[in-house]
Design a protein that fits this description.
This protein is an alpha/beta fold. It is 33% helix and 26% strand. It binds flavin-adenine dinucleotide.
């Protein structure tokens, strides 16, 4: 039997954004928290365009100052293009109250900034430690850990938070996985020296480009503050040609078909190896149990198109930490009512937008030139991450999107 090495109030799996923010929040409430992280930071991660709503969660976790000082690219909106059609949403002119700007971040730097903050605030982080198994009992939860080049050990806690992202540790171990309702897609992406001098390109916005003749194919261009950018293409599984081994040529080939995007990237230097992710949309039967809760991508992940992943991860971390605090205070919170359902409200708002994007309704709205300023500000709110603002009619009645799409078409 592996040696037992200590007991904590909470163990968090993963030091990504959800794990770091949950840990910092719990430390602030006064708990002993251990984060077990499989990799060593800084490490690459995808998910580089933040939404303004996430600033509130970073502020609550005491991490905002460090993020502001890190020198990331300022972001104030989202621009969309299809061939040479172009429109943009300025998040500062949104319906909901709150932050209207944020950042586009190299995640290696961003995630290390958050993890270092959590550590400075008192969370213990052990890097190079893979969680391999867990055991729940009356008295708590025991976690099996496999460190690099050392003997496996066990560690105990009252409660376990799974912030393992695409590692999806608890969904796999506890067989909680459920198929996503979203189709299977592939993302091919890389970082480039962008060399963009075209005045039409706004570095303060993410650029989402729709393929001019295949609306299910779209691209992102996320500029960073150092003259580099992240770019990638998302395509349905069936459109990806397995026989084409050269993924860089595939990405560049699609970019060449991207109208304005291809002009922006004319002088880009593709100097970084390509990456490919597929089948990333996922869901789970439940987001909590007696002794655990799932955070961020370890719970439900929809789709990258509206850059909602980190915002949902931070929202889940903030909500879970507050609910767990009430549990530790003996208030017996109802995790379904106080964690799962509130979190899923915002995810469901994004889901309507993601569905509307792929079936064409939202693209019709975005590229319509007859949308009113008030409708634009409500859509802008959701694109800025305010998917939990129940004052916004598009949060309360997401079916409005269909009506709006009809109006825009007419
Ligand atoms: C193509 C694509 C583009 C995206 N673009 C955006 C975007 O622009 N903006 C945005 O907000 N989101 C985006 N996302 C989503 C974003 O990547 C995630 O939502 C976000 O990283 C989730 O954060 P997290 O903390 O839940 O998990 P992660 O950031 O994945 O962190 C999980 C951590 O857990 C660790 N871990 C895993 N398994 C174990 C284990 N067994 N033991 C110990 N540690 C473990 C990992 O090493 C990792 O460090 C995108 C996703 C995809 C697929």
């Amino acid at each position: 039997m592996a040696e037992l090495q200590g007991r904590y109030d909470v163990i968090v799996i993963g030091a990504g954004p959800s794990g770091a923010v949950a840990a910092a929040s719990l430390v602030k409430y006064g708990y002993r928290v251990l984060i077990l992280e499989r990799q060593h930071f800084p490490r690459f991660s995808i998910g580089e365009s933040l939404l303004p709503q996430s600033m509130e969660f970073l502020e609550q976790a005491g991490m905002l100052q460090a993020v502001v000082e890190a020198g990331f690219q300022h972001k104030n909106g989202a621009a969309f293009c299809r061939g040479y059609e172009y429109d943009f949403f300025d998040f500062r002119q949104k319906f909901s109250a709150g932050w209207g700007t944020t950042y586009q971040v190299q995640r290696s730097h961003f995630d290390k900034t958050l993890a270092d903050c959590a550590e400075r605030q008192g969370a213990e982080i052990r890097y190079g430690q893979t969680v391999t198994a867990i055991e729940q009992s009356e008295s708590g939860v025991t976690v099996d850990v496999l460190p690099e080049n050392e003997a496996p050990y066990r560690v105990e806690a009252e409660f376990l938070l799974d912030g393992s992202g695409f590692g999806r540790v608890l969904p796999r171990l506890l067989k909680l996985e459920k198929a996503s309702t979203l189709g299977s897609r592939i993302a091919l992406f890389t970082h480039v020296e962008d060399n963009i001098s075209d005045p039409r390109f706004d570095r303060n916005k993410i650029l989402i480009t729709v393929h001019p003749s295949v609306p299910e194919i779209w691209y992102w261009l996320i500029p960073f503050s150092n003259g580099r950018a992240s770019t990638g293409v998302v395509l349905p599984r069936e459109l990806f040609d397995e026989s084409s081994m050269d993924e860089q040529a595939t990405l560049q080939g699609y970019i060449a078909e991207g109208g304005m995007l291809s002009e922006f990237l004319t002088h880009a230097v593709f100097d970084t190896p390509m990456r490919k992710l597929e089948g990333y949309s996922s869901d789970v039967e439940q987001l909590f149990g007696e002794r655990f809760a799932l955070l961020g991508n370890a719970g439900e992940f929809l789709d990258p198109v509206f850059s909602s992943g980190v915002t949902i991860a931070l929202k889940s971390a903030t909500l879970a930490a507050a609910t767990l605090h009430r549990q530790f205070q003996g208030l017996a919170p109802d995790w379904k009512q106080e964690y799962e359902l509130p979190l899923r409200t915002g995810i469901d708002t994004f889901r309507v937008f993601v569905d509307g994007w792929y079936d064409g309704r939202l693209q019709n709205v975005i590229f319509a030139d007859n949308k009113s300023e008030s409708v634009k500000s409500m859509i802008s709110s959701i694109l800025a991450g305010y998917a939990w603002d129940s004052c916004n009619p598009y949060v309360n009645e997401p079916a409005r999107l269909s009506t709006l799409a009809e109006l825009c078409r007419g």
